[in-house]
Design a protein that fits this description.
6 strands, Fcf1_PIN, Rossmann fold
């Protein structure tokens, strides 16, 4: 009869005794925490996120022509690959005037990409594009776009990045513009999330 092999447990750690354990000398032992009694007359504060007034009924009332569209770095690159004129394609998608907005950090990302993306940089410097100044440090555009869209619900976000799309879908009342089949499309959210009705 062979000896039965025992499967090794994964990431087994040695058990440590608590610092409040009675086996430790009294001078080395940690003091037990004393619970503070709550004052029943004190005012209880609760942090409740306030919903923006623009999402009053079922859709975002701040969204309307002329549409302000926040552009991500990869959206410009994919537009060049698909041979699409940014402003004209946006207008064809939304049937209204569109103002493409580009933040300083998106501009910084395009400049960092170097000589290979000089066409994207030239498009980003188009006078029809509205430049939005950034107050934060660094050039990570995704966090900046998410923060801007959370504060001001008047933007449509143009991106092809899956991770950024996933983050923006969690914010109510913000539509996403993306590229598929060589044209721009708008992704609507369910009505209960405050979607715009185009």
């Amino acid at each position: 009869q062979g000896k039965q092999k025992k499967a090794r447990k994964y990431a087994v750690m040695k058990r440590m005794i608590s610092l409040r354990d009675e086996r430790i000398n009294e001078k080395d032992r940690a003091k037990a925490r004393v619970k503070k009694k709550e004052d029943p007359s004190a005012i209880k504060e609760r942090e409740v996120p306030q919903h923006p007034s623009c999402l009053f009924f079922q859709y975002n009332t701040q969204l309307g022509p002329p549409y302000h569209i926040l552009i991500d770095t990869n959206f410009i690159n994919f537009s060049i690959k698909a041979k699409l004129d940014l402003v004209q394609s946006m207008m064809d998608c939304l049937y209204a005037k569109c103002i493409p907005c580009i933040t300083d950090c998106v501009m910084g990302e395009i400049e960092k990409l170097g000589q290979k993306y000089r066409v994207a940089l030239r498009i980003a410097k188009d006078p029809r594009f509205e430049r939005l100044p950034c107050m934060h440090k660094g050039t990570y555009a995704d966090d900046c776009l998410v923060q801007r869209v959370t504060q001001h619900k008047c933007y449509i976000v143009a991106t092809v990045d899956k991770e950024l799309k996933r983050r923006i879908r969690k914010i109510p009342g913000v539509p996403i513009m993306y590229i598929s089949r060589h044209r721009y499309n708008i992704e609507r959210m369910p009505d209960d999330y405050g979607a715009p009705r185009f």
